[in-house]
Structures are given as C-alpha cells and as structure tokens.
Amino acid sequence: MTHDLVVIGAGPAGLTAAVTAARFGLRVAVLDAGPRAGGQYHRHRAGRPPAWPPLARLHTVEHLAEHRVWAVERAAEHFVVHAVAGERDTTPVTVRGRRLLLATGAYDRQLPFPGWDIPGVFTAGGAQALLKGNGVAPGRTAIVAGTGPFLLPVAIGLADAGVRVRAVLEASRPSPRAAALAPHSPARVAEAARYAAALARRRIPYRTGRAVVAAHGDRAGLTSVTVARLDADWRPVLGTSTELACDTLAVGYGFTPQLELAGQLGCANTADGFVAVDARQATDRPDLYAAGESTGVGGAQLAEVEGELAGYAIADRTPPRALLRRRARLTRFAAGLRALYPVRPGWLSWSDARTVVCRCEEVPRGRIEDAVRLGADDPRSIKLLTRAGMGWCQGRMCAEATACVLAEALGRPVAAGAPTRPIALPVRLGDLAQGAP
Ligand SMILES: Cc1cc2nc3c(=O)[nH]c(=O)nc-3n(C[C@H](O)[C@H](O)[C@H](O)COP(=O)(O)OP(=O)(O)OC[C@H]3O[C@@H](n4cnc5c(N)ncnc54)[C@H](O)[C@@H]3O)c2cc1C
Q1: Which residues approach ligand 1 with their CB closer than 6 A?
Q2: Could you give the domains of the chain?
Q3: Is residue 315 predicted with pLDDT exceeding 80?
Q4: Which whole number is the average pLDDT over 404-426?
Q5: φ, ψ for residue 210 (rounded to 5)?
Q6: Cα separation of 241 and 210, whole Å?
Q7: pLDDT by residue (tens digit) across 319-337?
Q8: Mutate to test the pocket of ligand 1, among 41, 156, 333 (most ligand atoms within 8 A of CB)
Q9: What whole-number distance in Å separates Cα of residue 259 and Cα of residue 269?
C-alpha cells in the first residue's frame, strides 16, 4: 500500500503534522526509532499514559514504533522508506508514501573538553532522557553546565529525582535585552520564571559566565570538575578556577539538527546548517516537507506549529492566518534566544592536544592538528588521515568539533558539512542486500 503521507519522526512536529493531515482524510504512516510516540519533549516511560494521546484516536494514522529509517529513495511517483524494526532491528521494513515529511528533530551539540569522556559525564539531553524515559537518576551529586534555557528543566528534573544539584553554570551572560523577547512567547517566559522559582526553592545556585572546563576521574567514574569564570569569548579568566566534587555532570551547549535523511534526498540547507523550507514547510524537493528542529531549533511549541502548517500544506489546504502569525512570533522568539545564548569560540581553549575529540575512534585533538600540519585543510582529509568521524556515530557527535579544531588550526572558518552518506544509520549487510536503494 502507498500512503498519502509518510512522516519520519514522532516528536511534536511529526505527530502534529500526521494528525492534521489525517483530519483532512489522508492516510498517514509515522515511523519513529523510539518505542513510544512523543519524541524528545513528550518522552515518557513504558506503562505510563502517553503524553501525546490524539494519535491513538485516529484510525487513518499508522504509528510504526521502533522503526529506524536508514534510507529514503524517490521512485517515479512516491518515496520508498527503508527501515529496520524491532528492539534488536531484526525486521527490514519498506514503507511507501506519495509525500514525505522529515521531522527528525535534533540532538545535543557536544563541545569536547578534558575529561568529557569519563563515565558520569552526560549530555544534558542524555540526562533528561534517562530521567524521563527510564525514571533513572544518573548519580547522586550533579553539576549542570552549558548554555541556554534547556539547562533549567534538566536541573529541576535531576533535583526532583533526588539528585543533589550543586550548581547550574550558564556560560553566557544573558543581557537585559532578554526582556524584549517576552511578548513573542509569554508562555515560554512564564515557564522560565517557574524554573527560576523552582531553582530558588531548592537553593540551587545559578551562575552565569562560568563553565566546566575539565572533568576529573577515571574509568570508575567522575569525581570532580574544574569550574572557571569565562571572559566574553569564553576563555577561562586566570586565577578563577575551582574544583567541585560531583559524580554527575550534565552538559548542554544547544542542539544540532538531524540531517542525514534530508542530505540523502538532496535538500538544500540554510546558511546555519538546517533544512531549508518555505512558508509551507516545503523543502526545495517536490513533495518533500520538513518541520521541527531539523529546520531550526525553537522548542516544542514551534515544532508543533510547523508540523500543523506542514499538515495543511500536504493536504493542499490553506492554513488559518493565526497559525502563520503564531509561527512568526515563535520563530522571532527562537532567533532571539539563539542570539542570547551563542556558543563562543573560546571553548576551544579548554582543551589541549590530548583531549579526545572523536570518542568512537579515540582521536585526540593533537592528531587532528598533526594532520593539518601534514597538509589536510578540509574535514574529509582530516577524516581520512585521522579516522575522526569514522566510528559508530559516523561523525554525529564530533563533526562540528573537528571542524572547529581544523578552523582554528587553519585560521579560517570551516563548515562541518551536511552528511550526505547513503546510509543514515548502522545496518547489517543482510538488510542492505535486501533493501538497498
Ligand atoms: C535529548 C533531548 C531532550 C530534550 N528534552 C527537552 C525537554 O525536556 N524540554 C524541552 O522543552 N525541550 C527538550 N528538548 C528540545 C525538544 O527536543 C524540542 O523542542 C522538540 O521535541 C522538537 O520536536 P521535533 O518534533 O522537531 O523533534 P523530536 O522531538 O526530537 O522528535 C524527532 C523524532 O524523530 C525520530 N527520528 C530521528 N531520526 C530517525 C530515523 N532515522 N528513523 C526513525 N526515527 C527517527 C526520533 O526518534 C525522535 O522521536 C530536548 C531535545 C533533545 C535532543
């Protein structure tokens, strides 16, 4: 059977698009790698009521959970989506759709620093996923560090799970300009105020202009971190380092879009590396749409609005003007937040030649710099000479950091480059042989 619409990603964007399109009579399939619908924001534990119930009530939406999509190809009149299904990826599945929506979201951006690979150091999203999806507290005493408002729910979530949160360290120093953002999303501002009150109630200190610049411990786990005050470029200010004991560090420097499938289909990207879409959430490829954080990081509400607009467009309906206005407001708010919490280049001064950049292949920064001395001047040559980005994650974790180390060594900007490989996720050779595009 060929569906009217196939959605990849059952987060806020994909689910809203699916429900909107189904309300206009389209037959929709939603594939997601996760066991339950909801994506990152509505992640919930097995046995708990779904955080996103409307899907269950719609008979024209087929939710294919635990389906990991590794390739999408375009046939004459439709898209062919290749996935592996089941907890252990044992079943190859092929789904066809006349139109396709990519709602694959984003994942934590990683900035390597000495000790970031010690057990007990989590990404902020990873710590949040453990709490929300498994009800597991990652440790007993934690520091939450990084930049952006996402640090706040992570700190509160840890504290609610019984973890002693010693501090939230915000590397940026948000300016009074922040107040100008309030009218664009009063709900988000109220949410931030609730988190701030919750931090105060729990006596968790919130310090700006500070970061964890090194983590200490061994294979048995994290024992402490070095915290330093940062200058405007995020270089540590001399004489301000202190060591804090903890067994857990949740560190978050924003999100990176999930672009593998968009890259396979040849979608154009924006200058800042997201999938480019028009006002209807259509990409530059026919019948191919994108919504949510793969088109720009802006939070769950914006992802939902974009998903709804994509649903209207895919069903060839005109969306209500109020919805368009809401997207414009939330987009302005998201752009303002990004400007308030930028990642500054001085983070590179936290690491040295021994600091691991690519964890999968254990490539230290020094080896990347050696490759530059040998003449490598683009990410591909670095990969071939050092193996950075050749491991299990295929550069999802390290490509951006590798490009930054390369840029600093060359003294000019370097783009990490959108992934364009024909296989988005690791799959077995047998699945490839059966379903190869
Ligand atoms: C780890 C993490 C935790 C977060 N927690 C919070 C939070 O607590 N509060 C908050 O306000 N914001 C949180 N955010 C931000 C939040 O993700 C977004 O605002 C919102 O969920 C974006 O919605 P989305 O639909 O664009 O993407 P997502 O919610 O990320 O959904 C994308 C979905 O696509 C699926 N997917 C991706 N690639 C494939 C593939 N190849 N095959 C099959 N499925 C695929 C994923 O499994 C995922 O379910 C978090 C982000 C991350 C990365």
Answers
A1: 8-14, 31-34, 39-41, 68-69, 103-108, 125, 128-129, 150, 153, 255, 258, 292-293, 299-300, 303, 424-425
A2: 2-107+256-319 (3.50.50.60), 110-253 (3.50.50.60), 352-437 (1.10.10.1100)
A3: yes
A4: 82
A5: -135, 150
A6: 10
A7: 999 999 999 999 998 988 8
A8: 41
A9: 9
